[in-house]
Design brief:
Elements lengths: L4 H14 L19 H11 L4 H10 L8 E2 L2 H30 L6 H24 L3 E2 L3
Antiparallel strand pairs: 1-2
Length: about 140
């Protein structure tokens, strides 16, 4: 019996999001501890770069693919992105309205209209740049 492609996709997405490289049925029941110097601990933290230390060590030791670091977008950035998207939508609506008015001939293409469209284009580019920089995730501290 062939599985539903949506189920396969859902499972693949769940695997990717869970960042697991080990089969879910494999239980890790044994704890191993070892000592390191302060310099070694610092070096390990630098190499982990946002990845959980145990996942990093396990990946290096057993040749698993390195997991992706835990990344988050700060809440203040989320709120700002939301507002920027609203502003961007308004600019797009204005641009569409002007272009439609030009198309049907109810608005002449004057120098002022050209300048206004150029200003909207520049504002849209700035919004996109700001959105991109605010969308950069930061490593989550454990």
């Amino acid at each position: 019996m062939q599985t539903d492609p949506r189920t396969n996709l859902s499972n693949q997405l769940a695997d990717a999001l869970s960042n697991r490289t080990v089969e879910p049925d494999t239980k890790r029941e044994i704890t191993i501890t070892f000592r390191v110097s302060t310099a070694e601990k610092t070096r390990l933290e630098q190499r982990c770069n946002g990845v959980v230390q145990s996942d990093y060590i396990r990946a290096r030791l057993f040749d698993y693919p390195l997991p992706q670091p835990k990344l988050t977008i700060p809440e203040v950035n989320r709120q700002t992105i939301y507002e920027l998207k609203k502003i961007g939508n308004n600019l797009n609506q204005q641009t569409r309205a002007i272009n439609e008015a030009l198309k049907i001939g109810s608005q002449p293409l004057t120098r002022e209209v050209k300048e206004y469209l150029q200003t909207i284009k520049e504002l849209t580019a700035l919004l996109e740049q700001t959105h991109a920089s605010l969308s950069q995730p930061i490593a989550e501290e454990d």
